[in-house]
């Protein structure tokens, strides 16, 4: 049996385990939450939001929505979804069974990590589709909002979301390790929420560029002021490094763990 | 029968430094045996099983399974031949039985879908295969856990307290199943239990553990012999005091009266008839004669300080 077949069967199983779980629904609920709020706001106050002639209404609609929801919401969402997905395993006392199977431990750790990342990417995709759909519906209901007369600049917004996702990788690595290690989900959840809030508070300080829980906010708020490392945003670089280091350390730690 | 499927040498383990949880354990499980691992609660049975499967890191000593030393290199190869049910079975409660087995089968690979239905049939859960595990009783969960360990037709099945939570009918079914597997496929079965009667009825070999130390290990037959050949009887009669004096005159050994039951020790089965004849000759009515379980006392004397 090759490494790849172990990995594939691990991924396959993670999908079966997600069936009918709250973690699965959370990806959808989180994705449509803000688009619904913006839909209601535009629907009720469509006169004030009607753009001047020739102005693309998507620009304001998309930018405000992404800038005001993603930076604050994504860290909380990651903390929650990571704990929930690992909780499926802990609740079923699954680790002792999995680690007694003829399956390499890395395939279990990284298979699960892949699913967490997949769930987060799915949420981004749902979110983007939900915004487009809500804008389209608003255009149908109130033609004066002009959503049907213009095309959104997809590339620009997808780029914004991608930057936000990469900036979140760092805390995915940390939160996944914590959630795997602690059966009691209060530990990763409590610590994660606490650090996410700290991350928002300290994001004004220049040193926050080294604090992974601030990266999500910084990736949007710093804009052009973002320091670069070899031409790449330093938040992106630090986030990827943090993800790689915590994933590898997390795996080495889990591998040696006594499963009680 | 000489080949050892499980063989540990000087196995030591401790959860924390102040206490030794497993001490110099020498476990010898012969091929084709049903090995009963017996000990009171908290004596280290589950810890030993976790050490065998590599879930816990031993402090020192070796674990040899199928003649190969268990280490990172041999781990997958060894575990491929083992099916284990460790304490409470690991089941995803929001899924049904088929999904749970599918997950286990996917991990092991090369297990066909028909095998899933086969093992469901073996543990008699086919009628509940599409029910969520949430709705299962403890006994059903235990049986599904066993089904999981059977999936790959392993050479060695390790069962940690498999009859926990089962009703009497379930216990009998589990016993039959274990014996069947052993006889039909030659599967070596390692069962831990704190119930002596379980082990006595099912097992060929027995190991008794106390405070992390092996205090007895041999075949069940020799355990019975080691207790000596005396048979203890409990006799219920209508006139216990008279019966007591009659039996004392026989000079057979210890006679006593306890809770209206006469207790007497005899040397052979023929003596049982003798005792009954003497009592009947004195016009004493006998309501019941029972042979007391020697092993139970032996177990208590071995495991109590």
UniProtKB/TrEMBL annotation, chain A:
Entry annotated with the keyword Coiled coil: no
Coiled-coil residue spans: none
Originating species: Winogradskyella thalassocola
Pfam family, one: ABC2_membrane_4
Keywords: Membrane, Transmembrane, Transmembrane helix
Protein name from the UniProt record: ABC-2 family transporter protein
Record's keyword annotation contains DNA damage: no
Signal peptide: none
Segments traversing the membrane: 21-44, 70-88, 109-137, 157-178, 185-206, 226-252
Automatic annotation (TrEMBL), chain B:
Pfam families, alphabetized: ABC_tran
Record carries keyword ATP-binding: yes
SUPFAM superfamilies: P-loop containing nucleoside triphosphate hydrolases
Tree of life domain: Bacteria
Keyword ATP-binding: yes
Keywords tagged on the record: ATP-binding, Nucleotide-binding, Transport
Domain (ABC transporter): residue spans on this chain: 6-236
GO molecular function (one): ATP hydrolysis activity
Family: Belongs to the ABC transporter superfamily.
PANTHER family according to UniProt: ABC TRANSPORTER, ATP-BINDING PROTEIN (PTHR43335)
Name the record gives this protein: ABC-2 type transport system ATP-binding protein
Organism: Winogradskyella thalassocola
